[in-house]
């Protein structure tokens, strides 16, 4: 029997489903009989509960289950017969006026859109490049040395300076009242490391052991502590300890402490270069992928299924609540987060996902097993035991699906960059590493 599909809006469709009642009633009876064999009720032995009692207690829920199952089968069959790609779940409501012995329902749903991708050769894309310089290696060495610094007590008359570790007591007041978080004893900080506001560190710098100082500190308007943001506090600070920092020498001992197999300075620099080049590669890939996807979106024409967008909004909201919970926010799972906050992001994701899917199917850009293996091997190479990391990926289907998704995106990126007009842009190492990634 031919299925009649009614178009309501761009992607919205309606199908009328008509089901005979007899098979539904037979299935309900069969399920109730099966249930009666094991159901337990006060006053009856197991399996001896009268059918009319079982039907009275469970009839509604069993009928509901059977009707849902039959409707699901009928809808799937109708959609398949009409060759429809259904997006999201249908909204099914009972329809009045069905013939005797039958029941009718209207199923309203959305279908996936046709995606039209214009000629990509007309698109202009900036492709970024960057390299690892000796200066970058020196800077990384400096960070590694700083992480392994040691401290020793300064002389009694020495003044605190940048890089020193100091222990202080402090108390801050606003309008004469100490505010939450404004007082601490035996507080340890590194002068100049940005642990405290610049005004606080500037006040401590130059102070000597046992010295006390009062000063004013203006909190920024966008300060994370809302109670003090934009306000000026009067602080008193007392220095109780000053220690100078000592950086380890760049030698074989440092290389050995960092796990270099052949502990030499040259090997250490080579290892740093290798790790930085890997990081540069991934950051460039992210930037260039973003540029390619922007070009794809600009050349894609499609309507968005509302159900899929709403599902993506809900997923983003759940992710936001999970992040709030991780930060220790009370009742994060109940935090009121309006849909509008994520609407644009969700629409972009859905639009991009549909466009990428169309490009993948049209050009056979699916992830190949050897590509997946190569990507996992590259990810694992930066760990101490790569083989364990490889097994970790292959041991979980979700992790493998995530990797396959990345490989597909890389395939799509390469395809797009092979079609568009490229403008090469060179970034310095610092520009790349300091850039905000999309």
Please explain how this structure is put together.
The model has no long low-confidence stretch (mean pLDDT 91). Strands 7, 8, 9, 10 and 11 form a 5-stranded antiparallel sheet that branches. The chain has a 4-stranded antiparallel sheet with strand order 1-2-4-3. The longest helix is centred in the middle third of the chain and has 34 residues, at 265-298. It is extended, with a radius of gyration of 33 Å. The protein has 12 helices and 13 strands. The chain has helices at 21-36, 51-81, 134-147, 198-204, 252-257, 265-298, 306-326, 340-363, 369-380, 386-394, 397-417, 429-434; strands at residues 5-7, 12-20, 86-95, 102-111, 116-117, 124-129, 150-153, 165-174, 177-190, 212-218, 232-246, 300-301, 421-426. It is of the alpha+beta class and 438 residues long.
Estimate the global geometry from the Cα principal axes: extended
Low-confidence stretches: none
Looking at CATH, the homologous superfamily of the largest domain is Trigger factor, C-terminal domain
The main pleated sheet reads as: 5 strands, antiparallel
- Count of DSSP H/I helices: 12
Secondary structure: helix percent: 40-55%
Alpha carbon gap, first and last residue:
51 Å
Mean pLDDT: 91
> Can you identify the CATH class of the largest domain?
Mainly Alpha
**Which class of secondary structure composition applies to the elements?**
alpha+beta
Q: What is the H/E string? A: EEHHEEEEHEEEHEEHHEHHHHHEH
Number of strands: 13
* CATH structural architecture of the largest domain: Orthogonal Bundle
Instruction: Note the beta-strand portion.
Output: 15-25%
Please state the oligomeric state of the protein chains shown. Answer: single chain
Radius of gyration: 33 Å
Count of separate structural domains: 3
CATH topology-level fold name of the largest domain:
Trigger factor, domain 2
């Amino acid at each position: 029997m031919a299925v009649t599909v009614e178009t309501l809006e761009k992607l919205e469709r309606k199908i009328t489903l008509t089901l005979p009642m007899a098979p539904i009633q037979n299935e309900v009876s069969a399920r109730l009989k099966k249930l009666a064999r094991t159901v337990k009720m006060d006053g009856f032995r197991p399996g001896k509960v009268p059918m009319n009692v079982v039907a009275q207690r469970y009839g509604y829920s069993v009928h509901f289950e059977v009707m849902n199952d039959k409707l699901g089968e009928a809808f799937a069959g109708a959609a398949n017969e009409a060759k429809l790609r259904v997006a999201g779940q249908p909204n099914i409501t009972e329809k009045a006026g069905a013939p005797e012995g039958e029941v009718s329902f209207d199923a309203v749903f959305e279908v996936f859109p046709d995606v039209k991708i214009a000629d990509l050769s007309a698109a202009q894309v900036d492709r970024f490049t960057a390299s690892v310089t000796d200066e970058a290696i020196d800077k990384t060495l400096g960070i590694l040395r700083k992480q392994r610094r040691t401290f020793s007590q300064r002389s009694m008359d020495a003044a605190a300076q940048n890089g020193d570790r100091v222990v202080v007591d402090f108390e801050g007041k606003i309008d004469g009242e100490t505010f939450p978080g404004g007082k601490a004893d035996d507080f340890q900080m590194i002068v100049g490391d940005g642990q405290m506001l610049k005004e606080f560190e500037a006040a401590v710098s130059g102070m000597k052991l046992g010295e006390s100082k009062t000063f004013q500190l203006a909190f920024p308007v966008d300060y994370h502590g809302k109670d003090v943001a934009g306000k000026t506090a009067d602080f008193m600070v007392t220095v109780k300890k000053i220690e100078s920092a000592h950086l380890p020498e760049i030698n074989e001992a440092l290389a050995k402490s960092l796990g270099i197999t052949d502990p030499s300075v040259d090997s250490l620099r080579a290892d740093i270069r290798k790790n930085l080049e890997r990081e540069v590669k991934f950051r460039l890939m992210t930037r260039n992928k973003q540029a390619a996807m922007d070009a794809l979106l600009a050349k894609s024409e499609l309507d968005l299924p509302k159900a899929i967008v709403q599902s993506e909004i809900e997923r983003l909201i759940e992710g936001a609540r999970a992040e709030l919970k991780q930060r220790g926010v009370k009742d994060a799972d109940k935090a009121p987060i309006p849909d509008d906050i994520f609407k644009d992001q969700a629409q972009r994701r859905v639009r991009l996902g549909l466009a990428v899917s169309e490009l993948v199917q049209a050009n056979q850009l699916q992830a190949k097993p050897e590509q997946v293996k190569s990507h996992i091997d590259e990810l694992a190479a930066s760990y101490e035991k790569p083989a364990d990391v490889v097994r970790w990926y292959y041991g979980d289907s979700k992790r493998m699906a995530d990797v396959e998704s990345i490989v597909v995106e890389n395939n799509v990126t390469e395809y797009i960059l092979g079609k568009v007009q490229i403008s090469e842009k060179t970034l310095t190492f610092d520009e790349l590493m300091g850039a905000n990634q999309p």
